[in-house]
Amino acid sequence: MESIEVLVAHIQGLSRSPDEVSHLHSLLKQSEDALRSHAARLAPFLSQLDPSIHTLGYLFLLEAYSSGSISGEEASGFLLTVVEFINSCSAEQIQLAPEKFISVCKSFKDQVMQLGVPMQGIAPLWMAVRKLQTSTEQLTTLHSDYLLLCLLAKCYKAGLSILDDDIFEVDHPRDHFLYCYYGGMINIGLKRFEKALACLHNVVTAPMTTLNAICVEAYKKYILVSLILNGQVPSFPKYTSSAAHRNLKNYTQPYVDLANFYASGKFSELEACIQTNQEKFLSDSNLGLVKQVLSSLYKRNIQRLTQTYLTLSLQDIANVAQLNNPKEAEMHVLQMIQDGEIFATINQKDGMVSFHEDPEQYKSCGMTEHIDFSIQRLMALSKKLSSLDDNLSCDPQYLSKVGKERQKFDFDEFDSVSHKFM
Amino acid sequence: MEELSVHSREEKNVEEIARRFVPYGGRKKSPLGFYLAMDLSPIQKDLASKCYSAVADTCDDLMLKLASRGIRYQDEWPFAIHLLGHVFANDLNSARFLWKSIPLEIKESRPEIVAVWKIGQCLWTRDYAGVYDAIRGFDWSAEITAMVVAFSENYTKKMFQMLNSAYSTISVTDVAHFLGMSEDRAIDYALQHGWKLDSSCKMVIVKKPKTVTERKLDPSKLQRLTEYVFHLEH
């Protein structure tokens, strides 16, 4: 216990300047084992430190404390301590020991989930993500934990502030899988189906040597969201890993069947397919989404009519879309006009609907702004890609691989790779 | 509105446990200071300045902050205003999730929350006329009345715009239905906005308003075009 008191004195004394802090850092690293062995008794020492000034020391003590087991009565107090710490800690000192910070946040998340109060963890974890990131383009391990808490607490909108950042740096592939999968689920909950599709697409087409469970679940939702949004499931793009390409459909057979019945356009057949596979859909927690697929079939059938007819009576629409009467057809068409899914006008006097072309002429100021904005984003992305490409062509691993293949060619050929890499 | 104080046995226990973790210099400031009283002033500010579209975000942020302190805010939280905030912003998904998270005892003891939810439900199921019934079918408390009135006016305007874009001719009964007015008032409203009445078959002919879209270009666009061409060339 004496060593702990000495350590606390060091922390209080050595937290002023960056040099002192790095000296402190090495002292702390040496005392890690001592801290862990006294894990249960560290609580009173924490009260002698100020998390905003003595961040690094506080972090080491807190991490050691959280690595031990925390009893029921201490749990709520622990949560409040961590919340206070995250809110007041200094981001620069955190960056010196990011793994410890992540470990504390993960214990926090586990406790919050165990106590059944996920909402308590949302605001602190958001702050933790922002303090841990070196830039908003970096994906940290905490991103997926944050989204998980948002999902459990049903505070979907809170997830958007993190989800809307563009990510360009990923440290661990597993973070990426979970982040995109949870991100897809949050977007589905908010009915932002296009964004959900993009997230799920990232999981399905991510590089992988073997299939993992996250990818399988993501593919199931991918099929359902594709049907709701576009009425069909696209084939795998070229850059999909062969592991995914070969095996995904085997694990998701009921969903592939659903997609086939959807393509036929017949309501009764689709309903029958859903009935047979209801257990499977329920156990995957996808039944709600499947029901949305079913109701989207009406819309799909009506949309198909716009491609063939200029005007059509409400009675005919009801017949084609398998609705009960013209009034129901009118309500469906009205909903679709309201949602911007078709362009039409209803003429109640004659009981007819006229279908129109998209009136957007792409000439207005607002549309020009929108196009400008998209082009700027594309240019920024293209610059990022060229710099990535440049970095990659200097990478020793890449050059040695290219160098090995070089040997198959004639030595007379232009030698772009130095011999030292062969 | 005076600050609300929250006292319950649960909170006293948490306070005891939290005392073990009084931070450095704890005498001077208590980080758990406002866990004995909830400060709802940001919400009041929005209501007073009639920024109704901002109410939902303000409520969300404040709720998460209170939750992170481990406070049991549910008893005193203005759920009715929070729900109406989401409805006002037409964010029915968030309204639904909020409704699901409200504890049953609170739903049963505060009929105003249920009344606001009725409005949200009608919007969700596209029961266009039901919305008006839900608005008129409850005796709203003083602090929420202004917001309900603002929502009602907004909704009527939106409905009229929808009819404008979706119909070329529509029966008078339906117009009255969608606008939540009597048939005579509905006819007046429609005529005011330039529609014509065909009294023989009780139909109104819709006149779409002329939309003026701005098409002026300014010199900065030229600069942007130059940038694009440069980028494409390299």
What does this structure look like?
Chain B: It is found in: Cytoplasm; Nucleus. The complex is a heterodimer of chains A (422) and B (234). Chain A is mainly alpha-helical. The longest helix of chain A has 29 residues, at 365-393. Helices cover 69% and strands 4% of the residues of chain A. In chain A, α6 (72-88) packs across α8 (98-114), α16 (253-264) runs antiparallel to α17 and α20 (314-320) crosses α21 (326-338). Chain A has helices at 2-13, 18-30, 32-37, 43-46, 55-67, 72-88, 91-96, 98-114, 118-132, 141-152, 156-163, 173-189, 193-204, 213-230, 242-251, 253-264, 267-276, 278-283, 287-308, 314-320, 326-338, 365-393, 396-406; strands at residues 138-139, 169-170, 311-313, 344-347, 352-355. In chain A, strands 3-5-4 form a three-stranded antiparallel β-sheet. A two-stranded parallel sheet of chain A has the order 1-2. Chain B has 234 residues and is mostly helical. Helix content of chain B is 60%, strand content 6%. Chain B is built from twelve helices and five strands. In chain B, the strands form two sheets. Chain B has a three-stranded antiparallel β-sheet. Chain B has a two-stranded antiparallel sheet with strand order 1-2. In chain B, a hairpin with a 4-residue loop joins β4 (196-198) and β5. Chain B is flat and about 55 Å long. The chains are: A mainly alpha (422), B mainly alpha (234). β4 of chain A pairs parallel with β3 of chain B.
